[in-house]
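Honest question from a wet-lab person: if I give you the sequences of every part of a complex, can you actually get the arrangement of the whole thing, not just the pieces? Trying it with mine:
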Amino acid sequence: MKKIETAKVISQEEISSGIFSLWLENETVAGSAAAGQFVNLYCNNAGRLLPRPISLCEIDREKGRIRLVYRVQGKGTEEFSALKAGDTVKVLGPNGNGFPLDEAAGKLLYLVSGGIGIPPMLQTAKDAASAGTVSVMGYRNADIFLANDFAAHAKCVISTDDGSFGIQGNAAYALAQTAETMMPEIIFACGPKVLLAAVKKYAQENGIPCYLSMEERMACGVGACLACVCESAEVDGHTHVKNKRVCKEGPVFEAGEIVL
Amino acid sequence: MNLSVDIAGVTLKNPVMTASGTFGSGMEYADFVDLSALGAVVTKGVADVPWPGNPTPRVAETYGGMLNAIGLQNPGIDVFLERDLPFLNQFDTKVIVNVCGHSEEEYLRVVERLADAPVDMLEINISCPNVKAGGITFGTDPVATERITREVKKRAAQPVIMKLTPNVTDITVAARAAENGGADAISLINTLTGMKIDVKTRSFVLANKTGGLSGPAIKPVAVRMVYQCAQAVQIPIIGLGGITTAEDALEFILAGATAVAVGTANFFNPRATVEIIDGIADYLQQNRIEDIRSLIGAVR
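Yes, you can. This is the full assembly:
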């Protein structure tokens, strides 16, 4: 039977302003985890009931560890940011489906991500048996994070909203710029809805297979509560209406399945 | 030691069931708990046709609780009968189907479809705060409550539980209306209507603006209402509202509930139901109580 696990905190550091990198150890969670999946992290405070869904940034299956890179958004993530090596935290997962790495095998893969959508792309870049990987990462400003971690696994393209580093514009703009000389054969994207919508449009116009990782407010994180649905183009096989559960059928969807 | 309780001739192996809408039709939580350990599974609301529910965001956390405005999304009675019910029937637990509708006719269509289905009881949701022209319009009007109870009873093949809303001045009026209409039992409380505003964006957190408040934050209100209803009606009461631990469940039983339902706790502890059952058994043993039934309504 599945259960909420207790994970040991290995390390935590603030890698950019308000962005934290947390390494946790739990063999059960790490052992079955795949790129693009997420975990539920639970607060140790009776006032904060609901789990926080956080994507997997890296998976160290040998050591039984996972890395979470998250932004402090509210009280829950603020609590997590105070965790120190040796502390424990309750975690459930891995949850959701993850990116379809098989689809990227032997192809030129573009990982297009923005802001706190960047972290799940790191393990995806590490695990992809692609013919080449380009990671296009969009940030608000020159306060960039994780880009160095990608260097060994992908060609990196960086954009900033304010133009203070790399290409000025969001990651979708940077994707179009970069693709002019190196056309993607498949695209995986994660980030704000406006970015996902732009990436989807680009992929459709150019006939490129595309998968999007969606985000929505969740309660249970296991498919029961129907809080985290996103609109789907067709009637879904589980819900029998035009929406899909981000936590269960997703968070990664083929772009055409989703209405943005 | 006896943990079993009877509601309208249906014997539950223990008094712990799931609260409608927090447990799907059991499929997702079957990975975490043996459904056969539960007194009953109460399904998510089932309507006559698929309902898409409300726009997102549908949930928001509040201190010690949460707001939801799912809007009774469900795949409809056809899919329920073909897929969800056969799944539930594999387990040695009672199946209580929660029925929702926009109109009397819609409720009655579902009740009639369930008449020859392997279902142990029906729970009629006349109290969802998140659907416009939905159940709550029946639940807040005692005349409508009595009438729909009577109409459901005419057609139902199974015992009928009426699920009551706390969003009224006096819940005992609704409880008596359900009893007068022939209800076999009542369940309470559904969620309390609430609201959350994001001061950063100066907008409503929920797309529906309002949502139903559940979780530990509402438990004292629920215990009080169960106690009040226990003094007002003779039919059995299923108590719910913020139950997280065995101690919480025992409070409701002492206040007059024959059985209890666990809802929001499933979201933060998928094993809450079985932990509560074990905790109740421990309590009986430690206090040398032979029969859980001796605790029902024991505090007056």
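Two things worth pointing out. The CA atoms of residues 75 and 180 of chain B lie 32 Å apart. Chain B has nine helices and 16 strands.
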